[in-house]
Amino acid sequence: MEEIKIKDEYIKLGQLLKLAGAADSGVHAKILIIDGEVTVNGEVETRRGKKIHSQDIVSVAGYGEIKVI
């Protein structure tokens, strides 16, 4: 499980995917999310603007898990 540290209160899901390297671009992140390949805390998330907070766990099909700290 990869850990990503954020300095603000939250990060948007699309931004997190790019920061972690799970998506090459914003368009790639959007496609992953729309296709239902991303879960947040075990639930499929289809909004790329979803606010991800510290201790949330994001899972991406074909990539793995990302824990926000």
Automatic annotation (TrEMBL):
Gene3D superfamilies: RNA-binding S4 domain (3.10.290.10). Coiled coil: none annotated. This is RNA-binding S4 domain-containing protein. Keywords: RNA-binding. GO terms for molecular function: RNA binding. InterPro entries: S4_RNA-bd_sf. PROSITE patterns: S4. It comes from Vallitalea guaymasensis. Pfam families: S4_2 (PF13275). It comes from the Bacteria.
